[in-house]
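General statements about sequence and structure are easier to judge against a single worked case. No coordinates are needed to read the tokens, only the vocabulary itself. The sequence in question and its structure tokens are set out directly beneath this paragraph.
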Amino acid sequence: MKSGFNEGTTKENSDLATDLRLAEKYGFDFIEFRLDKLEAYLRQGSLEALEKELGKCRIRPHALNAIKGINLMSEREAAETLSRLEWACRIGERLGSPSVVLVPTIRDDLDAAGRRAEIERDCVEVLRKCARIAAVHGMGVALEPIGFRTSAVRSLQQAWDMIQGAGEENLGLAVDTFNVHLFDQWRDIDVLRRIPVERISVVHLADSEGGPLERLDQRNRLWPGDGDVPIGRVISTLDEMGYTGVVSLELFRPEYWQMSPEDVIRIGSEKTRRWLGAT
């Protein structure tokens, strides 16, 4: 498996150029660019400059993060979302990124359980459209289930069922250790084994504070190994499946955003490589 750094880990205390430099310095194999940081970079520089900078680096770009709120969109929202995806794919094609992550709609008034059939029909249609846009650019899209009760797509099984329903070969799954913990604390780890390994586009690595699941938020993410997520079992299962892709550190913890980006990326590299080195 290869190590990756997701820029959400330094969302509030760094920028793309700094993340790229430090992720390269501390030995990450891949970097997942956030679209908001990419947009900020392009307001000051150019795509050509970023391509030139990447040409000097050993580290390579991986999935772009993320197109959000893809479920139950209005016509206007759908048009804007698909346009943004097309923009991201044009950038990704230039940079050599293999995929764009898709994040389900999260809304407090969303009755995901009561509207499951509607959500699944809608999501299959959206995934098909997204996959076909990405395919034009030689890219894929990866659906990332989010475990919150207010999320339209909560579990690995539900996400995989929708991917199969859409029937596009460039559709994959983004497996996030924290988000699966939010759903069922990885009680059914066998669901991971039932997914063809080649359809796992990326694995996001994060641990979690303890406490009732309904009280947890993305801010409760921790360094891998510091919390309640069975990181070892997940990594071992992926290893048994033959997964050789990217395992990317993705944290949204305000406490870490108060640190220097160099300390965050240095510690993050050490913590990530400790797990990958055990496989």
Summary: The radius of gyration is 18 Å.
